[in-house]
Amino acid sequence: MPAMPNDASSTPPSASRAPELRPYQTQAVDNVISHFRGSDDPAVVVLPTGSGKSLVIAELARRARGRVLVLAHVRELVEQNHAKYLAYGLEADIFSAGLKRKESARQVVFGSVQSVVNGLDQFADGDFTLLVIDECHRVSLSKAALSTEVADSRANSRRAASTYEKVIARLREARPNLKILGLTATPYRLGEGFIYHRHYHGMVKGPEDAFFRDCVFEQPLRVMVRQGYLAEPKRIDAALAFYDFSRLMPQRDGLFAERDMNAVVQGNRATPQIVADVVERSREREGVMIFAATVAHAEEVLGLLPSAECALVTGATPGPERERLIEAFKSRRLKYLVNVAVLTTGFDAPHVDVIAILRPTESVGLYQQIVGRGLRLSPAKQDCLILDYAGNPWELYAPEIAQARPDADSEPVQVECPECGFANTFWGKRDGDLVIEHHGRRCQGLVGGQQCTFRFRFKVCEQCGGENDIAARACGHCGERLVDPDDKLRDALKLKHAKVLRVSGMELKATTNGRGVPRLKVIYHDEDGETLDEWFGLETPAQQHVFERIFLREHLRAPGSGWRPQSAEQAAAEAERLRAPDFVIGRKTGRHWRVDEKLFDYSGRYRKAEAASGSTENSFTG
């Protein structure tokens, strides 16, 4: 492989002065080298905040045969990564306007991405064999950026591509087999999920067209804490005073609007109580970082803290002033540092032992970045208090689940795929050892290098019968547009012989039909007392198979569990295993109503039965 040596013979003489890597850092480096010896696919290494990504980058740059470009989005990371490389006794260039250096002649160059993209002509010689992107979860890369053809690369450069895409396009124009490595503590993007497709443990995490193909190494946060490399986070959810952000709706970009957050926090009577609680819990603590929702909110918080011990940093704080305040905090002349979305990455103050979260976090990645500011080790530091006054739903130790916890009772559960046997991890609930509910959609296992095709929950294409993700808009099998649930409801409401129920309850009864034959009767209730029902036989294996195929796969709270009731009595007795649909559409056939369609996992414009009573917005009358 052109970018990496095959043995230690190419190690520079100065390597004797190199820092000693921890075992997991060595393993990360080895896995990267092994991957790039056999593949040109972009790869990711996942290491928690405080685990020493800079040292891994330095070791990879040291062992690379060709030239290496290391990119970061802020000058603090550029400087930090460069310093670790210098610790080997080697020299490297810095290309960063913020650091007032524009050097690019040496074998290894550490640069800020904006400076590099503004000076791309200095990186077009074709001798760069490895591109390293720090904090790669911040990178928005299109599928077009994967192209290795010169024509496509030039097209990428001409269009309004991201800064990283422009750098990649230029480097690949000169060297199509450029190796690209990303490093991050949080390998997911807001609204997109995981940034890579496959995990080296043999599972699928992100979409098939993800730019980064493989995660080649991951060190779990729980392991880092257990092995003593990071301080233990001790989360305390506010009990007496807190903010209620539960009604906030994200904008199209997935972020909360400042005006909406201000509507919750501005003048909120809870703020003085919250700040007093932070101060009380921090009396014996060294450094407190407070993450506020908005600038106005941060200023209010600042006014309630001990004036001689606190400071505020926002995006509008001038550079020299920001550096002065941060230095005062790091040297412990200040105890409290309030900030608004500016100190979540590239900030290193190991003495921090209290993190106070007074804002909603839109993603598990942001939540983990905030918490990570307090997990670095420091003398006499035993742990870090995580004080959450915003009811954030994210699970710190379950980063493999990139969705918010559905409710307070949910926990990570293991669900075996009935087709390939892979042990998936989803949010769910247990009754003892029995998984009675989970929120998984598709098996994450790899079969022959491809993702297993089994879907726990799905949307069926009416044209070809293919199963698709419940959020899909077009069929992945035939390409036909999948009918929008709102269109189905609207069309049904127009029909004289159709009935639409907003389901408020589902009832199962073991009974007999008009001829005295045992049957299971399923009754759907709406808020106004209307009902629709359907009947099933469960006396023979054939009937049980039909029941499983047309009822259980949609209704099971834990699909794929293998539960198949042998009688109507058993189905009714274990009805807690089943979930009700959000809407049921019935059609009149003769004198009777027949259940024609059921809508699950609904997220359209009409109100569901679980919405607040009395609401008329987006409603309908059936």
UniProtKB/TrEMBL annotation:
It holds the Pfam family Helicase_C. Residues 8-18 have a biased composition (Low complexity). The keyword ATP-binding applies. SUPFAM superfamilies: P-loop containing nucleoside triphosphate hydrolases, Zn-binding ribosomal proteins. It comes from the Bacteria. One of its GO terms (molecular function) is helicase activity. Residues 34-205 form the Helicase ATP-binding domain. InterPro entries: Helicase/UvrB_N (IPR006935), Helicase_ATP-bd (IPR014001), Helicase_C-like (IPR001650), Helicase_Restrict-Modif_Enz (IPR050742), P-loop_NTPase (IPR027417), Ribosomal_zn-bd (IPR011332). The keyword Nucleotide-binding applies. Residues 274-419 form the Helicase C-terminal domain. Keywords: ATP-binding, Helicase, Hydrolase, Nucleotide-binding. Residues 1-21 are annotated as: Disordered. This is ATP-dependent helicase. It comes from Salinicola rhizosphaerae.
